Amino acid sequence: MDQILIYSDSLTWGIIPDSRQRLPFDKRWPGVFENTLNQLGNNIRVIENCLNGRRTVWSDPFKEGRDGSQGLAQVIEMHSPLKLVILMLGSNDFQCTHSNNAWLSAQGTAKLIQIIKQAPIEPGMPVPEIMVVAPPPIIEPKGVIASKFNGSEKRCVGLASELEGIAKESSVHYFNAGNVTEASAVDGIHLDENQHKVLGKAIAYEVVDIMG
Question: Which helix (H) or strand (E) segment is 87 a member of?
Fold first, then answer.
């Protein structure tokens, strides 16, 4: 059995837009992803490490532990051996507490890639493959998170392109979620249940070749 770690935020945790509720595993994209890969003849276990509000490398002034670079090396060590690590972060880098642009956010992902490559895994265990997934572009934030993400749809412009460049420079895999789904029209940030299904299947078909 091969293990795949998904390191992400609330888009992957499966928060239901404009609520504090969570989709069940088989309805959020990691579950769809795992089930699709196994239906295609693989033997895969997905490990979710997804925290609401997680940034790439920035802290949340109101909640602890949201800097995605902190403890990442130990997460890799904890779950090794890993076949693949999927990084899907960036949306929270554009919360109103930060003045980040797309280039800065992508540099945060570049740091995470280096942490994964240098993680202190046991001798003889493989360094996992890495896939960077660009989240769907933020559209106008609505509902309960509107104030938190005020102006984020402008600050995030160009993130997918910047992440693609980082992936090429780092020789890792890349997938643009915005090519297969938009953000939810309900809150402008997260994913509706049908969008999770589309994304999970699309990433699974992309990962088949990586799994060999």
Answer: strand 84-88
| Domain residue limits, the chain | 2-211
How far from each other are the two terminal CA atoms of the chain, in whole angstroms? 13
If 0-12 CB within 10 Å is exposed, 13-18 middle and 19+ buried, where does residue 67 land?
Answer: middle
Alpha carbon separation from 193 to 54, 55, 188 (Å, rounded): 21, 23, 14
DSSP percent split of the chain into helix, strand, coil, nearest 5: 40, 15, 45
pLDDT of residue 211 exceeding 90, the answer is no
Average pLDDT, integer, range 107-125 = 97
What is the structure's pLDDT at 210?
Answer: 85
Query: Cα–Cα distance between 181 and 194 in angstroms, integer?
Result: 10
Give the Cα separation of 208 and 11 in Å (integer): 22
CATH code that applies to domain 2-211:
3.40.50.1110
pLDDT exceeds cutoff 80 at 212:
no
Q: Do residues 54 and 105 lie in contact, with contact meaning Cβ atoms separated by under 8 Å? A: no
